[in-house]
Design brief:
Layout (H helix, E strand, L loop, with lengths): L1 H6 L2 H15 L18 H4 L8 H4 L8 H21 L14 E3 L3 E3 L1 E2 L5 E2 L3 H17 L16 H29 L3 H17 L5 H4 L3 H6 L20 H7 L13
Antiparallel strand pairs: 1-2, 3-4
Helix pairs in contact: 5-7, 5-8, 6-7, 7-8
The structure holds zinc ion.
Organism: Holothuria leucospilota
Pfam families: Mob1_phocein
Protein name: MOB kinase activator 2
Length: about 260
């Protein structure tokens, strides 16, 4: 870590100092929003990507593809890509000690509820394990993701996909908030940015999430100029059919920026 600090620019060094202090501090107090370092907004890093394609084009529903099949297979590919990226962080950087809560920008902390609606306080790696396990179960369930000829997608397929994608967004928000500097160490921030740009275009194209789900990274979305919606969605999903209970599964204090995190 000290070697890294010798070549980090001042703003990044401050961010790293904050990160080290934050993860070792025991009182878990969250700094005021104005002091929260967001190195991922620095143009030097936010502009770094590994692909330079018209992503908005490649997320569109291709001719001949069935709608559910397309959003399902695209979500599965995000699952794989985000998993690979997170595998760099889990254990060494994202563990129960370093990340005692599922934190995101704007002092947000997500809490988990199981499928019966029972809340459980958990660390970030636990939350991510629950979320990714839920997603994986859906992908493997023939009743949700049919693979045989003649099978149909379930009536609640879109709400399941939306729920999975909300989890993915939480995971990306946690990575940006707590582990951006770690990925920068490995020069993987460009991969993170590429996945995020692709992902946001996908979410927008299919109206997958509400603004209240994505506002935690709204400043990054602005910096990356991802808000320029040029066309109507391929096929609007309409109102989310998540039940209140399901929506409660996915967040807790995210409706109030700056709210005191749960302890
Ligand atoms: Zn973490």
């Amino acid at each position: 870590m000290s070697d890294l600090a010798t070549y980090l620019p001042r703003s990044l060094q401050e961010g790293m100092d904050w990160l080290i202090g934050r993860t070792s501090r025991k009182d878990k107090k969250t700094p005021p929003l104005s002091e929260e370092p967001r190195p991922y907004l620095d143009p030097q890093y936010s502009k770094a990507k590994v692909i330079d394609l018209d992503i908005r084009e490649i997320v569109r529903l291709p001719t001949g593809f069935e709608y559910n099949e397309w959003i399902g297979s695209t979500t599965l590919s995000f699952f794989n890509n985000i998993n690979i990226l997170y595998s760099v962080l889990v254990n060494d950087y994202c563990n129960n000690e370093s990340c005692p809560s599922m934190s995101a920008p704007n002092n947000v902390q997500y809490t988990w509820q199981d499928e019966k609606g029972k809340k459980a306080k958990c660390t970030a790696p636990q939350y991510i394990e629950y979320a990714m396990s839920y997603a994986e179960r859906q992908f493997k369930d023939e009743n949700v993701f049919p693979t045989k000829y003649g099978q149909v997608f379930p009536a609640d397929f879109q709400s399941i996909i939306q729920r999975i994608n909300r989890y993915f967004f939480h995971l990306l928000a946690h990575i940006y908030h707590s582990h951006f500097l770690h990925l920068l160490q490995f020069e993987l921030h460009c991969h993170l940015n590429s996945i995020f740009c692709h992902y946001v275009h996908f979410l927008q194209e299919f109206d997958m999430l509400d603004p209240k789900d994505t506002y935690v990274l709204e400043d990054l979305i602005e910096v990356l100029q991802l808000n320029n919606k040029e066309s109507q969605p391929s096929e609007p999903l309409g109102e989310t059919s998540d039940s209140d209970k399901e929506r409660g599964n996915i967040n807790s204090i995210d409706s109030k920026a700056g709210a005191t995190p749960e302890q």
